[in-house]
Amino acid sequence: MKNFKRFILLVCCFAIFGFQESTIDEENPKPEQIKKLLNEAEGSINTMNFDKAQEQLDLSLKLSKRINAKSYIALTSTILSRMYHVRHEYDKGITQLDRAMSIQREINDDAGLNYSYVLYSKILTSKREFDRALNYLVLAEKYYTQQDNREQLGIIALNRAVIYFADNNTKPRALTELRNAEVYLSDSDNQYEKTRLNYFLARAFQYDGNYERAEQSAKKSLEISKAAGYTGMIMYSYNLLSEIAQERGNYASALELLRQGNKIRETIFDVNKEALATEANARLGNSALKSTVDQLTAQQAENERTLKVNKLTTILSVALITILSLLTLSLYKNNNLRARANELLQKKNSELILAKENAEKASLAKAQFLTTITHELRTPLYAVTGLTHLLLEESPTESQKEHLNSLKFSGEYLLSLINNILDLNKLEANKVEIVKTNFDLEKRISDVLIALKNSADDRNTKLHFSYDKDIPAKLIGDPLKVSQILINLIGNSIKFTEDGDIWIAVNKARQDGKFVSLLFEIKDNGEGIGKEKQKAIFENFTQGSTQINRKFGGTGLGLSIVKNLLSLLNSEIELESDLGKGSTFTFELQFEAETLETKPAEPVAPSKDIVLTNDIMKDKNILIVEDNKINQMITRKILEKNKVICDVADNGTIAIEKVQNNEFDLILMDIHMPGISGIEATIEIRKFNPDIPIIALTAVTLDDNLDEFYMNGFNDIIPKPYKTEEFFHKINKYLAARETTV
């Protein structure tokens, strides 16, 4: 009987080896045969046929060693590592990868080494070592960028998105990388990566609450997986569809999808169990031979077991009594330790609560301090800038003019620093809220460009604006945040571009129903930024270099504010730049379209713009409501130089009386004054004079939401200190509008 079993085993072995020899010449293998074998092994792994994959990889290693093809030896270890990764045996996978990468470095196999880098990143992601995983992707990305390998670049972008999605701190950034992967893989035939891409797109849409898009992507992933037989991805797709159905309230559908996913899970479990059993048999020797040896020793073991059973019973009884005694003692000690641990935990928790309260008080004190000191700084700064303007108007000598211009620049620089620090403080304290309202984006950007035109003209730089006419006419979003982002970015380009051009372009990226995504691009041909500094410039108080800071000045806060605002709006900024060749900043924002209609190519009845000049102010009566004597004098002199008839009120009560008894063309109203405030005075004036223009001329810190000023009767706000161009522009605008209505 024993000889017959051995004969059957030999026949099976010869049959297996004979079949393999019929397809591959093991004595004289060719590289293309090994390559084909490795491709087939990857396919077997994708379909979770691990037994077949193990056979193919064992044969590949044998043939590679026979012809001493080190690159294929290393690649075999890499693909074996991938199989271990799919089976969640990560340490085994890392061992195989280290072996492969050692060979690839030895023979300078860059292609194989970078393929291993990508797989190493996947395993580290599964082990939740995200920083190391990202580092390996960066190494591979450099190589594939040089090779212009779009498919591998798409796989890298997809794996980076998986890392961002696995790390809760970076989840919002995953969708951007998935969009990049979608572009790169659009022409690829790699169905496995495409099904992964659609699966994680579905996860990203699910995270954003866009369940319809999530379901579409998950179904596409399931469709590709079924066609290619990717068992694991079929299971993941079913489970994801079940989650989406549950979140949408379709509980019956969710349960059915979950059942289908569990069926696949059971199949995968059986496959893994068989593969592990086969691997164990391979390590221990031939299973048939082991079975025979077991049969020969079974009888002897049974006899020994019978002799020992009584002795074992006695030993177990004594051991059980000992264990119970030790367990009782252990429970007593554990209860004492637990009581002490709970007492210590409560003490530490109280300390943490106290530390949290102290931190909140410190943060509140910091915010209050910044608000107070800002107001105190703005008042004397208004005197500095106002007096400088007046002195420049009085025909100073050339040497005096040079000093006065320096003083004016210093005042404007100090004001910019104050505003930036306040903005950054609000962002870091999470006190900035998104306010959604309907607005005209094209007009909003045009207003920003008008405000920055003088700065651009000073640098002899031209601004070019391009706006996609397919963008809906009215959008719903936060126009103030958009303006602040553009002012900082365009102002940054103006600062570093002299005798050049700046292009501002807004194009529609895509539209899903009423939601439209717009791509913003700000491009210049100025100084540019070196590659090594491009990430650092978005940090607080950071510029491209010390030389740039000395040459152009600035605090390095503008781009940090832009980054924080875009993060608040669920977006990221991208930078492309070369030193000496200019920079391009791009970002994408999503808005809701109030109406799907777009602007006509040509307006039906264009209105004539009113030409604003300082001549409009001549002989106009303007009331200045201000309690600070220096501020009164400065504002009055600036206006009287343009032939304005000025009157002054020291507080809100006097202002109300003067408006009741006199005719004024416009009022400049301070906010903080003794007695009643400027807001209260405006409310009282509106009760008997609803038409006179009232402009808040104030040094208070303005919040993003200015509705309180407008709701209480103000027409506009001019924060002090101001630029004289803005000051005259707003006054002239309301005086001109008043003349047309009289």
Percent of residues in helices:
55-70%
Cα distance spanning the termini: 120 Å
Which descriptor suits the 3D outline? elongated
Biggest β-sheet strands, sense, barrel: 7 strands, mixed
Average pLDDT number: 79
How would you describe the overall organization of this protein?
The protein has helices at residues 2-23, 31-46, 50-66, 70-86, 90-106, 110-126, 130-147, 150-166, 174-184, 191-208, 211-228, 231-247, 251-284, 287-392, 398-428, 441-458, 479-495, 546-552, 558-568, 629-640, 652-661, 678-688, 707-711, 724-741; strands spanning 437-439, 462-467, 475-477, 501-512, 515-524, 573-578, 582-593, 621-625, 645-649, 666-669, 694-698, 716-719. The strands form two sheets. Strands 1, 2, 3, 4, 5, 6 and 7 form a seven-stranded mixed sheet that branches. Strands 9-8-10-11-12 form a five-stranded parallel sheet. The chain is elongated, with a radius of gyration of 37 Å. The chain has 742 residues and is α/β, with parallel strands linked by helices. Mean pLDDT is 79; it is low at 1-22, 280-293, 544-554 and 601-609. The termini are far apart.
